Structure to design on (458 residues):
């Protein structure tokens, strides 16, 4: 495969993985290749990263794809680093290999880029990672390499070598433990990278790239979020909450120009012969709008509701008044669970156990809206922004459009964020279009779409 083919394939793979790479940026990366030493692989990596990567959250996926498209070696062409003082990696006992691994891990992170480290990783994958899968076929696994060498169990031995009799439990041990843990993680990542390289050689780069690289955190579908993804999404919540509050405040200020300032208007008219050509208005007082969040907490959107509750928690710091409500087939106020200083995960757990949001366990938007209007109708007023979060699937129950229209009419602004793909709206029990005719409905499947919705508010 030529360098041009690798460049084109790499850029296309980044786009398929969800990284926003434009045609102009791809050309910039190609021009950067003209001014660097192509034999320096890390320089090549950083040249691509500087021209193609926009956010830190995109870097892990970029590095994984770079290692697939520009591997350090190929199985057909390998260089072997020999050292007469080290054991034969193919014949040595496991205890000898663990000793050698401990020596490598004791070096700092920069030394792990040494060719000897890479050769050791490749030899271990060759020896322990191969598993027969039938005549003429083989599979590669990283877990079998890590199980054979157990790098995590080397920590105590390496700490003794690093501390050299120093007192345990102090700052020196904490620093050493962190450094060694990072080196162990680096070894595990190197093993996984070499396994992916071998699978790509057997099955094709495109196939392994599609199955290995996860989308960036801002592209993860809310309806498919895992617990690990939710931890990453927490870091995205607070900036979005600040931006949402800012946008709604701007819209509030632009909604009314303020009262006429008669004195300033008369004074300005003196320059035009007493004719008030230019009117002066009194500046409005700084104001944070009030917010009411109405969130679907049914099982069908459970992961989405977890994210929206994280967002609700963050919004409490940005608005003068935030009231949050959750519903399945009836509604209850959950503001009390998200008081400042409370752990958000604990708050979500308490809400699930204590909130009165479900009678029969099946979504019923119409009944929930009616109960909300009956019990909490005073929560919405002329200063309120209403935000509804849900998939608009009501199990064929009546939608109560008139009630929703009345609630939206009493609010200053009303928006609906739907986590389902637009193509699935109005399928099955979805009533997205009827609800969208009452309240402006937006597709909101990931953080990127939520950020776009916030930007378009101004």
């Amino acid at each position: 495969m030529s360098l041009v083919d690798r460049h084109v394939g790499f850029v296309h793979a980044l786009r398929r993985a969800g990284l926003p790479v434009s045609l102009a940026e791809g050309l910039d990366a190609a021009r950067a290749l003209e001014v660097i030493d192509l034999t320096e692989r890390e320089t090549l990596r950083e040249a691509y990263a500087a021209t193609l990567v926009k956010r830190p959250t995109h870097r892990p996926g970029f590095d994984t794809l770079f290692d697939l498209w520009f591997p350090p070696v190929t199985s057909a062409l390998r260089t072997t680093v020999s050292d007469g003082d080290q054991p034969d990696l193919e014949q040595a006992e496991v205890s000898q290999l663990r000793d050698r691994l401990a020596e490598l891990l004791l070096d700092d992170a920069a030394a792990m880029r040494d060719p000897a480290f890479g050769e050791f990783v490749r030899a271990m994958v060759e020896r322990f990672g191969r598993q027969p899968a039938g005549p003429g076929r083989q599979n590669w696994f990283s877990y079998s390499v890590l199980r054979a060498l157990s790098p995590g169990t080397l920590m105590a031995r390496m700490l003794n070598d690093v501390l050299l009799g120093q007192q345990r439990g102090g700052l020196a041990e904490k620093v050493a433990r962190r450094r060694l843990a990072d080196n162990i993680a680096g070894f595990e990542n190197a093993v996984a990278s070499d396994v992916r390289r071998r699978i790509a050689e057997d099955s094709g780069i495109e196939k392994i790239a599609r199955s290995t690289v996860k989308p960036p955190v801002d592209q993860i579908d809310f309806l498919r979020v895992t617990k690990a993804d939710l931890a990453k999404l927490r870091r995205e919540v607070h900036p979005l909450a600040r931006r949402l509050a800012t946008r709604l405040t701007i819209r509030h200020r632009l909604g009314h120009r303020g009262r006429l300032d008669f004195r300033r208007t008369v004074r300005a008219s003196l320059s035009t012969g007493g004719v008030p050509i230019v009117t002066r208005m009194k500046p409005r007082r700084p104001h944070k709008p009030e917010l009411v969040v109405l969130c679907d907490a049914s099982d069908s959107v459970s992961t989405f509701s977890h994210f929206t509750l994280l967002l609700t928690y963050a919004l409490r710091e940005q608005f003068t008044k935030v009231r949050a409500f959750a519903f399945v087939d009836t509604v209850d106020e959950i503001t009390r669970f998200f008081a400042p200083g409370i752990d958000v995960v604990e708050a979500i757990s308490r809400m699930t156990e204590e909130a009165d949001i479900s009678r029969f366990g099946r979504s019923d938007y119409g009944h929930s809206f009616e109960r909300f209007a009956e019990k909490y109708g005073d929560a919405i007023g002329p200063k309120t922004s209403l935000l509804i979060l849900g998939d608009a699937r009501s199990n064929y129950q009546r939608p109560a459009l008139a009630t929703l229209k009345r609630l939206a009419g009493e609010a200053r602004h009303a928006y609906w964020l739907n986590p389902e793909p637009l193509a699935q709206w109005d399928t099955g029990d979805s009533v997205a279009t009827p609800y969208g005719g009452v309240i402006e409905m937006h597709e909101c499947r990931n953080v990127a779409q939520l950020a776009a919705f916030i930007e378009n508010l101004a």
Observations:
- The domain at 223-258+286-455 is CATH 3.40.50.410 (Rossmann fold).
